[in-house]
Amino acid sequence: MLLLQTISIAIASASVVAGVIYYVFQIAYQTRTRRTDLVWRMSQILYADDYREAILKVLNLDFKDYEDFLKKYGPYLSDTPTMKALAKINILYDSLGGLIRKKLIDPKLVYGVFGPAILGNWEKVKPIIEGYRKASNQPTYFDDFEFLYNELKKEIQRK
Question: Cys-Cys crosslink for 149: which of 10, 24, 122, 144, Cβ 3.0 to 4.6 Å?
């Protein structure tokens, strides 16, 4: 009789442990799925027509430095199509960088989806952002975008 109770308790305990382990794996799987889904949805935004147009507009900007940029395109935060395109792209990548910095999404997944666009866009807008940081005394302006770029460069060097 005692042996039967002991076996029953052991089976019940093992069932509880198995259930907890299963639940932990399910939570981990759901977290990965949500993170992947978030990156996927952001990639759909990037490939929408208005974002593609903004990317092309930004990549086709022609300037030597921040001062030259201001002469050709006007004040940085003005309400022009060029500045709207610049803001749209910078905000998207700054948001991605912030999510990576907070470890809310997988950087390798982001780099796989957005890598070349991140590199090209940061290299294009870096003089503008750095110039605006100095002019406005805002040293952290779009720093998550810069973080994203730097982390991507590190990932490329590791390969």
Answer: 122
pLDDT digits over 102-123, tens only? 988 878 888 887 888 889 999 9
Q: How far is CA 157 from CA 93, 150, 153, in A?
A: 21, 11, 6
CB 142 within 8 A of CB 92: no
Q: Using an 8 Å Cβ cutoff, are 63 and 73 in contact?
A: yes
Interhelix angle 143-158/81-101, nearest 10 degrees? 60
pLDDT in tens, 46-98: 667 788 899 889 999 999 999 999 999 998 888 999 999 999 999 989 998 99
Q: What is the largest CA-CA distance in the chain?
A: 92
Query: Could you state, in order of their start, the residue ranges of all structural domains in the chain?
Result: 36-158
Tokens of 72: 């050709």
